[in-house]
Amino acid sequence: xxxxxxxxxxxxxxxxxxxxxxxxxxxxxxxxxxxxxxxxxxxxxxxxxxxxxxxxxxxxxxxxxxxxxxxxxxxxxxxxxxxxxxxxxxxxxxxxxxxxxxxxxxxxxxxxxxxxxxxxxxxxxxxxxxxxxxxxx
Length: 137
What we know:
Helix content: 25-40%
Strand order of the largest sheet: 1-2-3-4
Number of domains: 1
Radius of gyration: 16 Å
């Protein structure tokens, strides 16, 4: 099943029928695209989205980065609360957001690794940058 993780319907359907599924995505705002496949993403080195920090952070920027990461966790759980309830009803067991996401077979990431911070990725993560690039007029 080829699905977008923003809507958990595809992941729920694939888990229900025990089918392998592939995520085709740009990225989660709350860094779940690295947390779900268990990629290392240390807060002291990898800046969070919308902090505008670089990978060379001062102590206070690292504290800010950690606080933003805590806020992101609460934000994502609230954003996906209805989808998690629905998935729990369909699958007839308690599931969390990470339970649904980390069972993906392949992650097709629509961004180029050259523009991201250097970090290790899992073997099932494939960068396919340049897909939505329009030619300048």
